[in-house]
Amino acid sequence: MEATFATEDVMDGEQIVFGRIRFRVRDGRPETTYTLTHPYGTVQATTDERGRVTATEDIGLTPLDFTGALGGQIAPFLQWTPDPALPEGYIGDGATEHTITGSPFNTNFVLVEGTGAGTAGADSDPNDPGNPDKVYTDQFVLQGRIATIHGAEITRAVYSRAAAGAVMVEVFARSVPGQQLGVSLGGGPETPLQGGNTPNYLSRISAGSTVPTQVTVTNRTDPVALPVTVGVTDAVAITQADYDSTNQTLTVSATSSDQSGAPALTVTGRGGLSGPVGVFALDAPPSTVTVVSAAGGTSTAIVRIVA
């Protein structure tokens, strides 16, 4: 994983984080294919007429989109095999060659295969000792600090309001297991979220008769609190999305979790529902329909062909 700027200049708004795997051969056999097995997979590359090749995979190069790097192969992070010399809070000391663990494929080594890959004095493959077309190492230099601030992500914040007016708010969040998360409705008192054995956390809170406009979740286990705030919406449930090919009609039924406010519901690109139902004339339906509530909620369902 690397962090830098998209341009040569240090400029706010140009920050990028990306995952890189680079395989480089120098002084290999000309026009020869080499295979590299590493902790995160396998790469093949063919040398040029000079016996050289560089194969690079960079994932996540969009400025300010720091999640892009998660689409690469680098996960989970490697770390030293158990060693009392490992500095506390680090995956390695950044200088010492060491055996490692963490490969999702249990390939905690680098193996290069190809004609003449092995050279005099190079480490041979322990599973194929003496093969001149293989070179192997299980020694890595690792550099990285283990995160102490994990934060939280709010994945859903919805309210329901009964016909009599009572409001309940459901907050779903994610973090690493073993955290203590708290949620505040519109700046009010903080309520703990349940969970901790998995990355998922939940809180269901009574809000009286008032729908809060936003909720804030804070990870209280972190040494530095970094609150996360999102808006609150109703929850939309699509109960029917049927297309009748004989009559060429699409019927959509949906409800809002706000029984008292009864916000208007609209099928995107089609029109509003009358009560909970809408019927639309179409010679062919879309594969899915999306219903949007005036209170902010949204839901998508697959269209079913009924005739």
Proportion of beta-strand residues: over 45%
Give helix % range: under 10%
Shape: extended
> How does the major sheet shape up?
5 strands, mixed
From N to C, what is the helix and strand string? EEEEEEEEEEEEEEEEEEEEEEEEEEEE
Radius of gyration, taken over Cα atoms and rounded to an integer in Å:
28 Å
Sequence-ordered SSE layout with sheet pairings:
Layout: E1 2-5, E2 15-25, E3 33-38, E4 41-46, E5 53-59, E6 79-80, E7 90-93, E8 100-101, E9 110-113, E10 134-137, E11 143-145, E12 153-161, E13 167-174, E14 181-185, E15 190-192, E16 194-195, E17 200-206, E18 214-219, E19 228-231, E20 233-234, E21 236-244, E22 249-256, E23 265-267, E24 271-272, E25 277-281, E26 288-293, E27 298-302, E28 304-305
Parallel strand pairs: 12-20, 21-28
Antiparallel strand pairs: 1-2, 2-5, 3-4, 3-9, 6-8, 7-11, 9-10, 12-13, 13-17, 14-15, 14-18, 16-17, 18-19, 21-22, 22-25, 23-24, 23-26, 26-27
